[in-house]
TrEMBL record:
This is Arylesterase. GO terms for molecular function: phosphatidylcholine lysophospholipase activity. The keyword Transcription does not apply. Residues 28-185 form the SGNH hydrolase-type esterase domain. It comes from the Bacteria. Keywords: Signal. Residues 1-21 form the signal peptide.
Length: 204
């Protein structure tokens, strides 16, 4: 094989490897970790299947942890960015902050710090919002939901306003705890995330 052909072949291999190595890091809590579900049922796993079916050469790494708060995610993120070097970070944290009644301002600071860290590592960020049930009071639930919008606007990142959009009022799509979506609801969660993610994927 001529020298030029060998060089071209090696370049194509390197380019293909770089494309295949593109990683999407799902950085969330139990809503993304697949709490109460069987292996393969959570929406991040369904996302990998959709990406493959759609012809995208991305690998999904689901590093979500049940019970995680925005503070915990903030402390763990630098090591994950170094390990996985994601091109995209799907940031789905804050639900446990709300369930514990923590101040939205603290959550905003943690989300902002994670967005800044991801960007500094060369990653795009998709922020995924959450809403609290009405029993937390109108003032708190409104301020909590608005926090995600404020952070997204301040840092100019795309936002999925509500992970459970379209079925949060349908108890049959939640486990007995009333918090975690069932396996049947996971495709709907994926559809919601996909709307915000797709523009970040670039060419196939």
């Amino acid at each position: 094989m001529p020298l030029r052909s060998i060089a071209t072949f090696l370049f194509m291999l390197m380019f293909a490897g770089a494309v295949q190595a593109s990683t999407i890091l799902v950085w969330g809590d139990s809503l993304s970790a697949g709490y109460g579900l069987k292996s393969g049922e959570a929406w991040p796993t369904l996302l990998q299947t959709r990406l493959t079916d759609e012809g995208f050469r991305h690998t999904v790494v689901n590093a979500s942890v049940s019970g995680e708060t925005s503070a915990g995610g903030r402390s763990r993120l630098p090591a994950a960015l170094e390990q996985h070097k994601p091109s995209i970070v799907i940031l789905e944290l804050g639900a446990n902050d709300g369930l514990r009644g923590l101040r939205p301002q603290l959550m905003a600071e943690n989300l902002t710090a994670m967005i800044d860290a991801a960007r500094a590592a060369g990653s795009q960020v998709l922020l995924v919002g959450m809403q609290m049930p009405p029993n937390y009071g109108a003032a708190y639930t409104r301020r909590f939901a608005q926090t995600f919008t404020d952070v997204a606007q301040a840092r100019e990142v795309p936002l999925v306003p509500f992970l459970l959009d379209g079925f949060a009022d349908q108890p049959e799509l939640f486990l007995s705890d009333g918090i975690h979506p069932t396996a049947e609801a996971q495709p709907r969660v994926l559809d919601t995330v996909w709307q915000g993610l797709q523009p970040l994927l670039g060419r196939k």
